[in-house]
Design goal:
Shape: globular
Distance between the termini: 26 Å
Strand content: 5-15%
Number of helices: 18
Helix content: 25-40%
Number of strands: 12
Length: about 500
């Protein structure tokens, strides 16, 4: 599937402004969509929307299917009649530029519990809607809600530390725990009902303006997840959950020891037996809530770096072939043409390129990787093909301003090469690089919001290998110049990427 020439912004909902300690699916999400429209943007790219666990990373979620409770809007809960205004007034500590996850999680849990109690007492038309939601998502919701209820009961401990028979999912034990935790299970279903209810309305609002949502699918699932607990036969663990092998990548330009992600790998032979049913359900579920899917670590579908389960770093490992062609043919067979973007960064072989091109998936270009004698010339725009997506930077990198300020201070050839390539020797290099992305032949140009606002390294989203302090960045409308939307709209129009008014 080929994509139209377009421009967009990368911003996770957690980074939106707001008074509840974290960006959410309330009024500010609609304001951001309005900003996208005013700026002539056709695309809004987000990170995975799942419930985050330890470390707060959207790439390590308790479920590959569920939504993140802390993104639920308290204001929308009031509008829907689940809460009164006075019940949401005691907001968590406010740092408008940074998320304190501890405070936010406690606050959201408190108000969601209140909303659930109100829901149980006041049966109305939403009860029917809730039941329909539970029935239509039964393939993942029952396991997830029991998993989360049991996790709460065990004080948040990883599932392998629970009762032995519950870990193994003995049928009689599962039945007993469902009865024991029935109210908590209903609570978690109610939370998911509200997440998807709020998100669906935002997506519809964006789509009505001609704006598409790009979602994100991590190739691997988290170890501490309902997906693994409920489907151990599909992953590289034993019946007790002990890891046999884990995912990661070998040493590269991000880390000299590689990246030890710790995610379980797939038992691909087992998944092939039912024509990749788990994957079909996962892709179908995601395409119900986004318009385009960016697959993270696409190269793992051609071959993945297999690391022993007890290895201290990612240096010890081996490449193992994956059935990517079979998988994507199965997905196409059951779901039709797939609107997929392949994140093809890192150690990319000709076999990975062949798999990507077989299905005509666009790859990704990062301008920060383009300049300097030690970087890769394939990221220079004169080497682009139209069927690709260009970004100034990614969530794992410094902001563009931070990256090039550091290069300038270190007096290496990155900064001078960039200046020569741009034929620009002024001070606003971030905007010039955005303009370079827009002017390229790439079908899609998507810019991180930090770069749109020309923010320095303090606004970096994630630092691979660093424990704590990641995924906390937020912006405020005070940081947005009054003419910014018009500037981007003019640039989108100039380079044939504008959002066009939909005909009624």
């Amino acid at each position: 599937m080929r994509f139209e020439r377009s421009a967009g912004i990368l911003l996770h909902p957690s980074s939106l402004p707001g008074k509840f300690g974290i960006g959410d699916l309330g009024s500010e999400a609609y304001n951001f969509v309005n900003f996208l429209e005013a700026a002539g943007q056709k695309l809004w790219q987000v990170f995975p929307l799942g419930p985050t666990g330890y470390g707060d990373s959207p790439y390590q979620c308790f479920s590959a299917f569920a939504g993140n409770p802390i993104l639920i809007s308290p204001e929308k809960l009031c509008e829907d009649g689940f809460l009164e205004e006075k019940e949401i007034e005691n907001t968590p500590y406010q740092n408008p530029y940074k998320i304190d996850y501890g405070d936010v999680i406690n606050y959201k849990r408190f108000i969601l519990k209140k909303a659930f109690e109100s829901f149980k007492k006041n049966q109305n038309g939403q009860t029917i809607e809730f039941k329909l939601f539970c029935e239509s998502n039964i393939d993942w919701l029952d396991d997830f809600s029991l998993f989360m209820a049991a996790k709460d009961y065990h004080g948040g401990q990883v599932w392998t530390s629970w009762d032995k028979e519950l870990v193994k999912r003995d049928a009689k034990t599962i039945k007993l725990w469902k009865e024991k935790l029935s109210d908590d299970i209903q609570y978690h279903k109610f939370v998911q009902f509200n997440f998807f209810r709020q998100w669906d309305k935002i997506k519809k609002y964006a789509n009505e303006k001609g704006i598409k949502i790009i979602g994100d699918m991590p190739i691997f699932i988290a170890y501490d997840s309902a997906d693994l607990w409920a489907n151990k036969n599909l992953f590289t663990v034993d019946e007790n959950g002990k890891l046999i092998s884990v995912a990661g990548v070998p040493p590269d330009y991000f880390s000299v020891t590689g990246q030890l992600w710790g995610n379980p790998l797939y038992r691909w032979e087992e998944m092939e037996k039912d024509d990749f049913l788990w994957w079909r359900n996962r892709m179908k579920n995601l395409l119900n809530i986004v318009d385009i899917v960016r697959i993270d670590h696409f190269r793992g579908f051609e071959a993945y770096w297999e690391i022993p389960g007890d290895a201290p770093t990612a240096e010890t490992g081996k490449w193992v072939k994956a059935p990517g062609e079979k998988l994507f043919k199965a997905l196409k067979k059951y779901l039709g043409e797939l609107p997929i973007i392949a994140e093809d960064l890192g150690l990319i072989t000709k076999e990975v390129v062949a798999l990507r091109d077989l299905f005509d998936f666009p790859g990704i270009k990062i301008l920060q990787f383009a300049f300097g004698s030690d970087m890769e010339t394939k990221f220079l725009p004169h080497n682009f093909i139209p069927n690709c997506v260009v970004h100034t930077g990614s969530h794992d990198n410094d902001t563009t301003r931070g990256y090039f300020e550091k290069a300038k201070n270190e007096k290496n050839d990155i900064y001078s090469h960039t200046q020569k390539y741009l034929n620009y020797f002024g001070g606003e290099i971030t905007f010039q690089l955005i303009r370079l992305a827009y002017s390229s032949v790439s079908d899609m140009a998507i810019i991180p919001m930090q770069d749109v606002l020309n923010l320095d390294g303090e606004s970096r989203m994630n630092f691979p290998g660093k424990l704590g302090g990641n995924w906390t960045w937020r912006y405020t409308w005070d940081q947005v110049p009054s003419n910014l939307a018009q500037t981007f709209k003019e640039m989108a129009t100039l380079f044939d990427r504008p959002l066009k008014k939909k005909l009624m």
